[in-house]
Amino acid sequence: MGGREQFHGLGSMYCRGAAAVILTYDVTSRQSLRELEERFLTLTDTAQPDCIFAVVGNKSDLTDDCVGTDETQGPVPASPAPRASKQVFKEDAINLYKQLLKYKMLDEKDFPVAEKMCFETSAKTGYNVDLLFETIFELVIAGIVKKPVKSPDTVELEQSTDSKSRTSPCCT
Ligand SMILES: Nc1nc2c(ncn2[C@@H]2O[C@H](COP(=O)(O)OP(=O)(O)OP(=O)(O)O)[C@@H](O)[C@H]2O)c(=O)[nH]1
């Protein structure tokens, strides 16, 4: 989700009808996580009710502990970029994810566990980027497969009764 000042007004548009939302902060900036909490939770109001959420800490290549293994890509080399201290930890992201589900009044047990949906990535080195998108795609596709297919010929009886009652005052 875009964090820049000039895009603030467009926030709810990003999420309208979304099947998945990726909330991104910068692991070297506590403020970036705070902004997600303060401004972005409400923007998810326009997403689909069964929307999948991921909380992503980007720029992990800038921190001292970024050298590790990527589940899909193997060892990740250290970046030559200057080191920065890590200001946001995985537990902070997990708390934000839980807070988001609470805000949306969603039951944690109907959604993937927070640990699965919080990632640390580097757009620069590609660290965990594939894993993030593969995880989201799998969950979104599984959700689509689970949804009952509605035939276009189906007439919803409840809906037609409702629309009849709505039109009746003009037919007296
Ligand atoms: N080292 C590093 N730099 C990154 C990474 N992702 C983005 N950047 C750099 O961060 C700056 C901002 O990136 P943008 O893509 O404009 O993202 P933004 O949402 O505007 O991010 P911020 O300005 O950091 O709030 C650019 O200079 C990018 O090159 C990353 O994973 N690692």
UniProtKB/TrEMBL annotation:
Keywords of the record: GTP-binding, Nucleotide-binding
Annotated stretches, region: Disordered: 152-172
Keyword ATP-binding: no
Record SUPFAM superfamilies: P-loop containing nucleoside triphosphate hydrolases (SSF52540)
GO molecular function: GTP binding; GTPase activity
Gene3D superfamilies referenced in this protein's UniProt entry, alphabetically: P-loop containing nucleotide triphosphate hydrolases
Domain of life: Eukaryota
Polar residues bias: start-end ranges: 157-172
SMART domains in alphabetical order: RAB
Family the UniProt entry places it in: Belongs to the small GTPase superfamily. Rab family.
Protein name (Swiss-Prot/TrEMBL): Small monomeric GTPase
